[in-house]
């Protein structure tokens, strides 16, 4: 699911001056680093091994020594290692994988992993995956201060999540997420697995 609010169009516009912080919506190196690492994590999950993101991070650290880039890469690398360790314990369902990434606050990576599942899904599950991608997009936007865009995405995500309790029964109770999206809570809720849900 390509979403222009997550992948903004920049064709035909000159790039603004690089911001003083890591900012993938305004700074091309930030965007390229984020996208490269996220793709590498998806490959690592598929391969059940960290080599794709470890190699990508090593290369990016060499190419981008500036603190704002280095800090992002090092932070992401630590979260990727924790997430892959959890997923490697037998979690194969993309939605459960997305929950692990969500709880590490890897929201762009949630988008990356769930989009692959979304492409294969149909019916209500496809709509649910799209809603979860949008919910992750809310926190991508809020992190960088784009509240108006986040509010629009939150409203669209809530429409589907509010009627998807039966599909989420084996994953998590959406009530806390719905409440957080309604008030645009800048602190994302944890997606706590349901006690009777499958964990694979």
Question: Which descriptors would you attach to this protein?
Answer:
single chain, 200 residues, mainly alpha, 9 helices
How is this structure best described in words?
This protein is mainly alpha-helical and about 200 residues long. The protein has a domain of about 70 residues. It contains 9 helices and no strands. α4 runs antiparallel to α5. About 5% of the residues have low confidence.
Write the layout of secondary structure elements.
Elements: H1 28-47, H2 51-63, H3 67-87, H4 94-103, H5 107-120, H6 123-143, H7 147-161, H8 165-168, H9 175-182
Helix pairs in contact: 1-2, 1-3, 1-5, 2-3, 3-4, 4-5, 5-6, 6-7
Structure described in brief:
The protein has 200 residues and is an all-alpha fold. It has nine helices and no strands.
Helix content: 55-70%
- Poorly predicted ranges: 8-16
- Total strand segments: 0
Q: What form results from the Cα inertia axes?
A: globular
Separate helix tally? 9
User: What radius of gyration results from the CA coordinates?
Assistant: 17 Å
| Relative strand content | under 5%
Distance between the termini: 24 Å
Question: Element order, helices and strands?
Answer: HHHHHHHHH
Structural class: mainly alpha
* Main sheet record: none
